[in-house]
Amino acid sequence: MASTEIAPRILCIGIPVRDLTFRVKSMPARGSKANASHLTEICGGNALNAAIAIARLGGRVAFAGPMGDARETSSGFILDRMAQDGIDTRHIVRMPGLTTPVSAIMIEPSGERTLTIYRDPALWTVKLPDADELLADCRAVLVESRCAAFCSDLCAEARRRGIAVIVGVDRAMALTDSLLTAASHLLFASEQVQETAGVADDGEALRSLAKLTPAFLAATRGPRGTIWLNEAGELEETPAFPVEAVDTLGAGDAFHGAFTLRLAERGGVREALRFAAAAAALKCTRFGGGQAAPQRVEVEELLRE
Questions:
Q1: CB-CB contact of 47 with 89 (8 Å)
Q2: Residues in a beta bridge with 21
Q3: Which of 64, 97, 167, 305 has its CA 20 to 30 A from that of 244?
Q4: Mean of the pLDDT values across residues 251-279?
Q5: Is residue 166 within 8 Å of 184, Cβ to Cβ?
Q6: What is the pairing mode between strands 226-229 and 60-67?
Q7: CB 232 within 8 Å of CB 217
């Protein structure tokens, strides 16, 4: 992006989470106890992690979605950290009497993470602000796949206005999910694309889903890189950057955020995928979940190397 160009505004839609992360030597056996070597309290959630990545990489970010009662502590903790990265929080909807989600995450030396999370089911009844307010001056929308219940209409309106809608998919989708057709770009994780399509192969799963949606389709596979369908319906691969991973929490979200930003900067999908791969790789080299997302200069340096 040229230095004289105004950074694109991106709307991220999701449900913020307060994360308690523990570093452990190994996963404890069922019914046992284990000591953690380190504890970090951070904010998380797929869309929020992506929003942090976008902000660190130079984008302007607004966030929309539900959050718990204004009197509970987790929401205040998250909002403080969002402010530190300059994320616009005016469109977050406070839900009286509800609890902001909280997760407990154990991270092993390999960087692999195991987590449990509580989300109040009533959070999905949220009513987002008006589309004109949310989409004003918006270049792209990035949404968590689990949020279809309260954002599908907004995503469809964004597409009618020519705004890209990128969906980060980290759980299987129903084939009737409205986001399958409302999205312009669907970024699956490998396991989820296979489960969604009912096909035990990433490439064949993508081809199967291409019959149901006009969206760009890709599946991320961690250190094995990303597989995707080009405009001719042919499979292509974007390799991952080899790094020594210490914390994979939030890596996929950083990938989604970086991909969305580069698209919003008018980059092509090949360029956006490589940019995203670099951002995700750098995130994996440091602890801190999504809050360990890299700065723009770091990503550009890795790309040059």
A1: no
A2: 40, 105
A3: 167
A4: 97
A5: yes
A6: unpaired
A7: no
Between the two ends of the chain, the Cα-to-Cα distance in Å is 19
Cβ 141 vs Cβ 14: under 8 Å: no
Q: How far apart are CA 293 and CA 85, in angstroms?
A: 11
Q: What pLDDT digit, counting tens, does each position of 215-261 carry? A: 999 999 999 999 999 999 999 999 999 999 999 989 999 999 999 99
Chain position carrying tokens 């250190």: 223
Using the CB atoms, write b or e for 269-290: b if 16+ within 10 Å. bebbbbbbbbbbbbbbbebebb
Exposure string for 10-24, b = 16+ CB within 10 A, e = fewer: bbbbbbbbbbbbbbb
Q: What is the mean pLDDT of residues 290-297?
A: 95
- Residue 10 · residue 61 · CB < 8 Å: yes
Q: For residues 66 and 88, give the distance between their C-alpha atoms in angstroms, rounded to a whole number.
A: 14
- Full-model pTM: 0.92
Q: What angle do CA 103, 106, 110 make, to 5 degrees?
A: 140
| 226's tokens | 């990303």
User: Using CA atoms, how far apart are residues 85 and 152, in angstroms rounded to an integer?
Assistant: 27
What burial class does residue 214 get, using C-beta atoms within 10 Å of its C-beta: 0-12 exposed, 13-18 middle, 19+ buried? exposed
